[in-house]
Amino acid sequence: VTRPSPGPPVTTGPSLAVGPGPEPDLEDALRASGAQVVDLASADGLVWTDSDPSSFPDSLPERITWVQLPAAGVERWLSAGVIDHEREWTSAAGAYAESVAEHAVAMLLAGVRGLVRQSRSQTWDRPVAGEWVGTVSGARVAVVGAGGVGAAVIARLASLGASCVAVTRRGQPVPGAETTLPASDVATAWTVCDHAVLAMPSTPQTRGVVDRRALRELGSRAWLVNVGRGDVVDTDALVDTLREGELGGACLDVTDPEPLPDGHPLWSLPTVLITPHVANPPHHLRAAYREFVAENVRRRTTGRPLLGPLNISAGY
Amino acid sequence: VTRPSPGPPVTTGPSLAVGPGPEPDLEDALRASGAQVVDLASADGLVWTDSDPSSFPDSLPERITWVQLPAAGVERWLSAGVIDHEREWTSAAGAYAESVAEHAVAMLLAGVRGLVRQSRSQTWDRPVAGEWVGTVSGARVAVVGAGGVGAAVIARLASLGASCVAVTRRGQPVPGAETTLPASDVATAWTVCDHAVLAMPSTPQTRGVVDRRALRELGSRAWLVNVGRGDVVDTDALVDTLREGELGGACLDVTDPEPLPDGHPLWSLPTVLITPHVANPPHHLRAAYREFVAENVRRRTTGRPLLGPLNISAGY
Are the beta carbons of B120 and A119 separated by less than 8 Å? Predict the structure, then answer.
């Protein structure tokens, strides 16, 4: 018997459907990790590739026991009502963590080292520009939401000489963080930290948690970086605080509203850098998702816990 | 007997003059490290604080056996003719290495992650902005000039998942680098690396070494970062290469000419970020210099080699 698929022999891989359309590269990766790729009617699992919940089937065959979604943040999937308790659901949380963490660190450095302000200058003014330059080394940074992205941010900041205060839902210690606070004590992070990186999901508990008071407590030398979800920050308060010079600056890969409309004040404030939700750049998404799903196929085949399990009650 | 100075007792510290003017904080630091601070006429060493060689004395008392200069790069001091072979001269090379390295890494990330291009955008265009985003993780970076700054850049890039090809004068292996090339093989670095960070001094051998051919070999996705000296890059070739899209972009903390005049094309190219020689920001300079000189006082007192010895024949 010859086996066409590469990799070690696998005999108990799942039968997976891929939707909504065919995805040859993804299907090859699934096969290489031991799955059979089949029609939805004969599948016991479904790997979805469309980031818009509206294209998702209204109902799924009963024998589907696992659904893999392509998003890292699933709040739209939860509110669309497609998630049920009848089967196991996994998000792609963590699939894009390394790239998102690198983006967050790039943004924090760009803010703290004065590059954001300098990028709007067209004249050599060393005394003024010098005042814009701080150092991440020696700074204390709040990393709020210490899942895959937060943990990867902490590792990178530690190697740059910063210390990190992690904030997680329950405050269980995060490796590499100087301290970990539970979400109920997040206000402490704003007062003891020099800067903040937000990498938390959008949930009823996190929405608007970075309010006017939080921003003021971070202070006039602090840079705020958001690579999680835009609505955890009160945008109006952010604009006001920046205009009044009560916050050093903000680098945002996610915004509220999103997309950020043309003419919004955040586009023109000199202490703001916006990137349009590209911390995991589109051209990296598919490869990263492929690797993530292949790992989940291997885990399912060998009975290990899947990556990215949805926590429906917590809302992420 | 009571001793007013903190730290361990020191009995053989040098007698140092500070010039051109009094510097109370520096003098306190010198005393704390075991030196006596005295007039030039009775000093056996001189600690200079003015970065402009024109204010330096035309001649020094014979008993001065050590002169500490405040600059990390001493080409202007060499060409001004103030350096003699009658005594030991030290520069501040390395004093500012950590901050300069952080600036270099911030600049490389800002280029590669698309932040430089994005900083000129005022509209949410995910497909276009996504194309600007690359990753430093997995990239191979040439670090040319692997003194204190280069070594600190390599350490930081390694922790971000990049591999580094170091280039040094003689090619002696640099810790953390994948490979080290001698300066005579620098052309190899342009062809095998994705990006380049320049941290070398200005010498007859380095001036103009990053020429049109080097820039083209780096290529249209490559970012060039310069935190060393502006004249190691052929500025006209850089402008041309960027205009033709043959180089991805450039982040320059040093330029040629420097200061970069208003209206120079580098100010307005969308793939260029200029910071006006602030990688060691002025407000950090004095503290960093103080710590550096104090260490040299301790070394001189205990007979260890000084940091930053001038290599007059090599020109740095």
Answer: yes
Catalytic positions of A: 229, 258, 277
d(CA A193, CA A180) in angstroms, rounded, equals 13
Q: Which residues contact B225 (CB under 8 A, 6 or more apart)?
A: B104, B107, B108, B111, B195, B196, B197, B198, B250, B251, B252
Span between the terminal Cα atoms of chain B, in Å: 45
Residues of B acting as catalytic residues: 229, 258, 277
Instruction: Measure the CA angle with vertex B147, ends B144 and B153; round to 5°.
Output: 65
CB of B156 within 8 Å of any CB in chain A? Answer: yes
From chain B residues 259-298, the ones with a CB under 8 A of any chain A CB are: 259-262, 267-268, 273-279, 281-284
Q: Cβ–Cβ of A110/B105 closer than 8 Å?
A: no
CA distances from A142 to A167, A192, A195, A248, B203 (A): 7, 8, 6, 15, 43
* Residue of B105, B252, B256, B278 for testing the chain A interface, max A β-carbons within 10 Å: B278
- When pLDDT is averaged across residues A39-62 and rounded to a whole number, the result is 94
Look at residue A89 and give its three-state secondary structure: strand
User: CB A284 to CB B135 under 8 A?
Assistant: yes
> In chain A, what percentage of residues exceed pLDDT 90?
83
Which among B102, B258, B267 is the nearest to A135, CB-wise? B102
In Å, what is the CA distance from B130 to each residue of A148, A280, B112, B152? 22, 8, 12, 30
Is residue A122 pLDDT above 70, yes or no?
yes
Q: Measure the CA–CA gap between A210 and A233, rounded to whole angstroms.
A: 5
Residues of A in contact with B110 (CB under 8 A): 106, 109-110, 115
Chain B nearest CA to A98, separation (Å): 8
What pLDDT is attached to residue A93?
Answer: 85
pLDDT of residue B6: 52
pLDDT tens digits, B223-244: 999 999 999 999 999 999 999 9
Consecutive 10-residue runs of chain B (316 residues): their mean pLDDT? 48 89 94 95 95 91 96 88 92 90 98 97 95 94 93 95 96 95 97 97 94 98 97 98 98 98 97 96 84 94 92 77
The per-residue pLDDT for A281 is: 86
Q: How many residues does chain A have?
A: 316
The mean pLDDT of A106-125, rounded to a whole number, is 97
pLDDT at B22: 92
Residue A249's pLDDT band (boundaries 50, 70, 90)? very high
Minimal Cα–Cα distance from A26 to chain B, Å? 21
Average pLDDT in chain A: 93
Backbone angles phi, psi at B76, to 5 degrees: -70, -35
Q: Determine the residue of chain B that is closest to A257 in CA distance.
A: B124
Cα separation, A40 vs A45, whole angstroms: 8
Please give the C-alpha separations between residue B272 and each of A120, A127, B83, B152, B248, in angstroms, as whole numbers: 11, 21, 36, 24, 9
Contact B124 A259 (CB under 8 A): yes
Chain Cα centroid distance, residue A228: 5
The yes/no answer to whether this complex scores an ipTM above 0.85 is: no
Beta bridge partners of B30: none
Based on its alpha-carbon atoms, the radius of gyration of chain A, rounded to whole angstroms, reads: 22
For A119, nearest residue in chain B (alpha carbons): B273
Instruction: Return the closest-CA partner of residue B100 out of B235, B200, B204.
Output: B200
pLDDT at B202: 93
* Whether the Cβ atoms of residue B157 and residue B143 lie closer than 8 Å to each other: yes
